[in-house]
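Fig. S4 source data, part A: sequence.
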Amino acid sequence: MERYLEPSAIKGTIKAPASKSMTQRAIAAALLADGESMIRNPSYCDDSLAAMSIAVGLGARVEPLVNELKIIGSATLKESKLNCGESGLAIRMFSPIVALYPAEITLVGANSLKKRPMIMIEEALNQLGVKCESSAGFLPLTIQGPIVGGRCEIDGSVSSQLLTGLLMALPLASKNSEIKVNNLKSKPYIDMTIQLLNSFGITIENSNYNLFKISGNQKYTPNTYIVEGDWSGGAFLLVAGAINGQLIIKGLRRDSKQSDMSILNALEMADAHLIIGDDQIEISKSELKAFEYNATQSPDLFPPLVALASYCKGISTIKGVSRLIYKESNRAESLKEEFGKMNINIEINDDLMFVTGGQPQSARVESHEDHRIAMAVAVASLGATGRVSIRDSQCVAKSYPGFFDDLRNLGALVHE
């Protein structure tokens, strides 16, 4: 679907979308609990729907309601082929969980997920005695459990999501386990995982993020879990307000473990007009200045940060480009290409991205079927010189299905 946006001032109060990453984790934990769990304020984005489908295939009963999700956990396998859609978290998190089952199960995916390397999953599960075979390092993955525990060593420099899956699965193994992690990035996401596991009765021993000790034979306790607002999606709303708005954004917790909460630091460095309250954030249009920001621990912030930098006076520097290769697209190149069409110059030097601010121009851009690229160019269009058309904009459903509706409700001129 191609949408186009006219330059628009936006104003109003908006609730941030629910966290898709916490929804997916909660679905997995509820699957593993023996009994009924309720997930309140769930995200029903495409990635969450993929997690729900996997949970059903692995034996859970899933009942989606308007503002909550009821899951009755079970270990009775129903399907031997499970589809992760385009969710990188689903494939990395559910692979170790699938290994708990004493059956051969195949994991498949769609579109960009087929291009992401799976060798790290294969190697980790093989170390733990699980038969796991990829297709020359890519999907499909065929896994034969059960996983019994033990020791393994993994590389955490590309993603922390496989570690999340191991931390969720190994407490149910018959033996104790140790995971050695080298060069772990996105540490806040592991904090999120451990916090959620604690709420379902699981304990993990974390030694400085490079050694994790997991006792076997633990049990998940059914729980009522409230999903917090998503700082990844909320970041786009905050940047939209800083560019051409006057917004009050609710539902973003200040005590969140989400690494993308650090968008507030970048906005403050850019001199955005921010008023941060206990339960809401006010942000309005201001004259923005260039900033320097290290996004290594929060790579999903690159797209909204580039949108912000495109309106900052001077050259902004964002570190962490190496974290962008294995996303829905090669985000560094996608951002450079699409913002270039809008006359915003981006240079990439090793791990650094340099964005020269100005005013985005009217253009026809591509999403690269990447939800965060689509949202970044949409937000950047709010103060552009003219219409910005976005091809394949429907990909926002991966994480934030109501994104364009929310912009429209705030006064943006969005046309389909």
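Fig. S4 source data, part B ends here. The chain is about 30% helix and 25% strand.
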